[in-house]
Amino acid sequence: MGRILIATDGSEGAAAAIAEGLDLARRLDAEVIFAAVRPPVPDFLGEPLYQKRLSDDLAHARNALEEARKAAEQAGITSEYELLEGDPAEEIARLAETRDADLVIVGTRGLGAVAGALLGSVSSAVVRRSTRPVVVVRQPGERRAEDEAAAGEATPTAGNAGPTAA
Ligand SMILES: Nc1ncnc2c1ncn2[C@@H]1O[C@H](COP(=O)(O)OP(=O)(O)OP(=O)(O)O)[C@@H](O)[C@H]1O
Ligand SMILES: [Mg+2]
Question: Which secondary-structure segment (H or E) carries 81?
Fold first, then answer.
């Protein structure tokens, strides 16, 4: 019996983390806490943009937790929810300690998903900050780091590689 903390921003990347986390929870007979962190809205937005952004972000985080809840329910796993505000990685790492999580699970990518980057800023910061073990889950079909590297090297080395090319 243990406790697994799964962080979700409602993205495809987080969905992979949720699927893996629920599978682990089932196999380890662990309970699950889902966490969504709403980053602070910048003051400079001013009204009414500030309020709009606040309620949009809140609705998004609630939706993310609701999707996670459904997935857990379908998997027959007991789960709890935390909607936090602040720096996502900091809040996730802190929650892992206060709730005594045995494992923290994040996706490689989230909503920000920029093509080419392998690890988002939140997942890499969670790995750096967390005192609890962290599992980073790749999305199905996502390219591997080695493939990225190989793709990057293929072009410059193709024309001048070894004796056969000469
Ligand atoms: N606000 C958040 N609340 C909870 N979990 C989050 C949040 N943001 C990211 N995560 C977790 O971290 C994982 C990776 O997301 P991350 O934000 O690092 O990548 P990204 O959005 O692609 O890149 P970036 O945010 O750096 O532009 C997500 O799959 C999710 O598990
Ligand atoms: Mg992000």
Answer: strand 79-85
Residue 162: inside a domain? no
Q: What is the pLDDT of residues 28-46, one digit of tens each?
A: 999 999 999 999 998 888 8
Residue 81, beta-bridge partner list: 34
How many domains would you assign to the chain?
1
37 token code pair:
């962190």
Report yes or no on 159 lying in a domain. no
Domain that includes residue 36, residue range? 3-154
Cα–Cα distance between 138 and 25 in angstroms, integer? 18
CA–chain centroid gap for 7, Å, is 6
Taking only the tens place, the pLDDT of each residue in 112-152 is 877 667 899 999 999 999 999 999 999 888 776 667 677 76
Read off the CATH number of the domain in which 135 is found.
3.40.50.620
Check if 15 has its Cβ closer than 6 Å to any atom of ligand 1: no
In angstroms, the CA 144 to CA 122 distance is: 19
Residue 155 CA to ligand 1 center (angstroms) comes to: 31
Closest-lying ligand to the alpha carbon of 109? 1
Asked whether residue 161 is domain-assigned, the answer is: no
Residue 45 has what pLDDT?
Answer: 83
Q: Would you state the structure tokens that stand for residue 1, as one six-digit string?
A: 């019996």
